[in-house]
Amino acid sequence: MDQGLVRQADIADVPTTFDASVVLLDVREHDEWARGHAPGAQHIPMGEVPARLAEIDGDAQLFVICHLGGRSQRVAQYLAGNGYAPINVSGGMEAWANAGRPVVTDDGGVGAV
Asked: Which residues are in the Rhodanese domain (predicted)?
């Protein structure tokens, strides 16, 4: 499989809730996550993904997100090369927030992107 061919999803095609069958993997850095993230997202910073692959459910529908879509694209390519079927979120958290979707902090407050 060509690692360059990772599926892309416009924000309108990304679910708003996540569970065991649908995962939103946020690969931004810890400080970005702390400022605000999608409710229910899983957080593994880009640099930690190789060491934490076992934490990512290969059976779930997997959406990968970062701030604008560049880092998540690279992570998605890496995951695709390791047997996953990731979908990169075009526009990232910027698009998520601009679509009026909720952004929260770890303590449940209103977050920012």
From this structure: 18-105
Q: Which amino acid is at 21?
A: S
Query: Is residue 91 classed exposed, middle or buried when 0-12, 13-18 and 19+ CB atoms within 10 A define those classes?
Result: buried
* Residue in the block written with tokens 């970005």: 32
Express each pLDDT in 3-16 by its tens digit: 468 999 999 999 99
Range of the domain at 32: 7-98
Catalytic entry in 23, 65, 66, 87: 66
Tally of domains within the chain: 1
Residue 23 lies in a domain: yes
pTM of the model: 0.95
**107 occurs within a structural domain:** no
76 catalytically annotated: no
